[in-house]
Design a protein that fits this description.
By secondary structure, the chain is an alpha/beta fold. The protein has 10 helices and 8 strands. Helix 6 links the parallel strand 3 and strand 4. Helix 3 packs across helix 5 and helix 3 packs parallel to helix 10.
Length: 357
């Protein structure tokens, strides 16, 4: 005789929504949401007011000789960081000065800043810290509003096509010879912020020009550097490590990261609703391209410094600049006076950096 098992009816499982997981009443959550949206709207209003005003003034400075336009650009980026509630912590010292044609005539070498790239916010951060010009992909030049702003900001656009490689390389070299420093993202694209992608050695071609064989004419290179004026390379690690004062873990990196086919508008709206964000930046010691046997070796050394620094920041460890390979006597340094000093002071104040936690 076998016993029959009586099936007990199972009660339907009700899905648990976010509102049931939260310890707060629904009305409190709704109030917090409305507060964040109001904060975001006010910040977007400030951005909409500031960008045309500041960029319009920048357009007027394009015709003015000297470095005023370079210094003013740092003020533009710095105020945008303030409007977005973004704080910046800087570890290390910047290599190079603001530059300019007079600086090149004095023998000050240009600097190429090499950084990892995970978001459009990287541009605001590095633009605040570094007196430089960005190198961006050619698609941005065709964007309705950002394209115009980038042009006024003297951005160099590259298409990464073989047919235009020589012309684009010559343009970047010419700009450095005339006084500009450059910011490059040698990963070639933005990432999710959890790692640093391998660096493409082709980006370092402007720092380490191909060697001519013995007996070949120097004029075969359309544009080249004067002896001793090869640009220095400074690796930079950028990591978003605080959100509302708390450490950023892996799941929260999506708040900052902008990559793939993500739209800019929704990501910007997400950023402006947070009360406070923080990015930490490590300025590693510079590298002299002349001390490396090849541009692949130079790219690998830069990647090692950036990747190591970014990993330490993601793990909330005490980060320190990686040692470089350079002659300290080759680092450019000049005294700044007058209105130039005032603009530099404003830019440094807007950075709101702390060298220690």
């Amino acid at each position: 005789m076998t016993r029959r098992r009586v099936a007990t009816p199972r009660l339907p499982i009700e899905p648990i929504g976010p509102e049931k997981l939260s310890p707060l009443p629904r009305w409190v959550e709704k109030l917090c949401t409305l507060s964040a949206q109001a904060r975001g709207a006010l910040r977007l209003g400030g951005v909409i007011f500031w960008v045309p005003l500041s960029v319009g003034f920048e357009a007027c400075l394009l015709a003015v000789p000297g470095t005023a336009k370079i210094r003013w650009t740092r003020v533009i980026w710095g105020i945008l960081c303030k409007l977005l509630g973004l704080r910046i912590r800087v570890v290390g010292e910047r290599a190079g000065t603001v530059g300019g044609l007079k600086a090149r005539k004095r023998g000050e070498r240009p600097v190429i800043y090499i950084s990892n790239h995970s978001s459009w916010v990287d541009v605001l951060i590095l633009g605040t810290i570094l007196p430089s010009v960005f190198v961006a992909k050619g698609d941005i030049e065709k964007w309705p509003v950002m394209g115009l702003i980038s042009k006024i900001g003297r951005t160099i656009f590259v298409s990464r096509q073989r047919s235009t490689t020589g012309r684009e390389r010559d343009e970047m070299i010419r700009r450095m010879v005339e006084g500009d420093n450059l910011v490059l993202f040698p990963e070639g694209t933005s990432s999710d912020g959890s790692r640093v992608l391998p660096f493409m050695s082709a980006f370092f071609a402007i720092a380490k020009l191909p060697k001519l064989k013995e007996g070949m004419d120097l004029s075969l290179l359309p544009i080249s550097y004067e002896p001793g004026m090869t640009p220095l390379i400074q690796p930079i690690s950028v990591v978003f490590d605080r959100l509302e004062g708390l450490p950023v873990h892996r799941l929260r990196r999506s708040v900052f990261a902008w990559y793939g086919d993500m739209d800019l508008g929704p990501h910007l709206w997400q950023i402006v609703q947070w009360k406070e964000l923080r990015a930490s930046v490590i300025l590693h010691e510079p590298l002299d391209p002349d001390l490396f046997p090849s541009r692949k070796a130079l790219a690998q050394a830069a990647w090692n410094a950036v990747a190591q620094g970014a990993a330490e920041l993601r793990q909330n460890r005490d980060a320190a600049p990686a040692p470089g390979r350079y002659d300290p006597a080759e680092l450019p340094h000049t005294k700044v006076r007058g209105i130039a000093k005032l603009l530099d002071t404003v830019g440094a104040t807007l950075t709101a950096c702390r060298k220690r936690l």
